[in-house]
Amino acid sequence: MKQLSDYFNYYNSAAAPFMHNMLADYESRQPFKGMTVAHNVPLTQTTLLKIACLRAAGASVTVVNPSFMQEDPATIDVLKSEGITYQPLAEISGSFDFLLDCGAELIEQCHARQGIVELTRTGAMRYENYPDAQVPIVSVDNTRLKSLETCLGTGEGVYRAITELSQTSLKDKKLLIFGFGKVGTGIAYYFSKITPHISVADMLPQRLRQIDQRGYQPISAESLPQVESAIKEADIIVTATGIKNLISLSYPHEWFNHKILANAGAEDEFGFNFKDTEVLAAKKPVNFVLKEPTLMPFLDPIFYAHNIAIEDALDNTKIGFRPLNRSMDEAIVKRWSVHHDWSLTELDRIF
């Protein structure tokens, strides 16, 4: 049976410098000693490093897995062997000092005594409008560093999953993306390495200008003729809007026949008019069919930020929703870019 230390050996300090530094720091300081943490983050072998850091900090961690991802029995076995509690999401309840959440799935079942940290855009929107906040709610999504994972990491993972699952060469195929937020931007960036034929549909005028400026074909999502033409020309269609049932509610099903379809959002964006068999990965977020949905170099700074945001909430106890401290955000991006040899100028161009 593997132990948590084995994963620090597998993901060495070159791949995960933030996690290695955090482990050493938390072992020496134990800043969360005596605290309880409910941890709802996609549970893969990479996530074990993040959980190990929380335990090293002195926290008692209860781990659950988000609803949009299949449980990984091997990873759960590692947690159990280390004496770390795992519960199915539907079964967790009670009070914890901190909720480390993904998609705001813990708030209906758990109570936070000292703070909440949210990882995703979907969850941030829910928490931002949460009427009964009694603690600080820190969003890692409302940061520049989140683009390292959501734009570059998810974009690469979606690209990798579609190329594997489609079982055909995608070189020079025509790609249509719905949504040009962080995820859509990353998908377009990685697919641009194999095809010049990329169209992106969005409702916002400023995003349509960005799409055009980056050399992609802008499609106004409010223009039915434009969308119909783009769908019928496309070989591959990917949703990345974060809007549940978007395609079923907006466009006729028959337009999508004989296309490679993939969903990159946490919600089922194709929706009720589409069978599971019509969309790669049965309409779930397509990259989560991979053993590593997002590669460790992109997760490493996000895991670090999600954990360290506890300290942000302890330092600034103002009740309500806010982004992670800006100086923390900027410092993490700078450290990541230096370590992985990406210029800040290049990151600015992609983001």
UniProtKB/TrEMBL annotation:
Q: Does the keyword NAD apply?
A: yes
GO cellular component terms? cytosol
What this protein needs as a cofactor is: NAD(+)
SMART domains linked to this entry: AdoHcyase_NAD
Q: Which residues form the S-adenosyl-L-homocysteine hydrolase NAD binding domain?
A: 150-313
What Pfam families does this protein's entry cite?
Answer: AdoHcyase_NAD
Q: Which GO terms describe its biological process?
A: one-carbon metabolic process; S-adenosylmethionine cycle
Write out the GO MF terms. adenosylhomocysteinase activity
| Keywords annotated in UniProt | NAD, One-carbon metabolism
Q: Which family does it belong to?
A: Belongs to the adenosylhomocysteinase family.
**Protein known as:** Adenosylhomocysteinase
Q: Which organism is it from?
A: Kangiella sediminilitoris
